[in-house]
Amino acid sequence: MGAGDAVTDRLGMAGRRVVQAVLDWALAVGVGVLAALGAGLVVIPLVQWGLVPPKLILWVPVITFLAVAYAVDVVIQIWVPWRRGGVTPGMLVMGLRVETLRGGRPTARAYLIRWVLLTVDGLLLGLVAVVSIVATRRHQRIGDLVARTRVVRVEGAASPGSTTEEGL
What we know:
168 residues; mainly alpha; three-stranded antiparallel beta sheet; 7 helices; 67% helix
């Protein structure tokens, strides 16, 4: 593999990770929006009937959105991959999987560390994560470095357990 191929490979892997992150984020936000709409539909009649103050028309949907989107993000980033072999919904679409540096299944603690450090990786609209993925040998973001995990490509739908040699 030439130097140009290596750069293209690194950028391609970073691109897959970005798309995966956007898909997972969109799912959490989408569920939050639906919950906020439902909360708004409940609170509007309550305000009209005089049972609750009018300020709640704004605050109930906003608080509902934040709480539900946050909870769904926790489920997507920690519980789902822990229970489903290291795959978030976005990773499933993009053909990726989280594994330990030795190739095993990460613990729930490792997923928690990765999720907490998304706040660091997400700085500057995710530029910190992209630079880290491109710059590290195993294509790890900061959350992966601290949790001692990596994200690898899954080699095709027929054999979900196989991975490429080079992780993302």
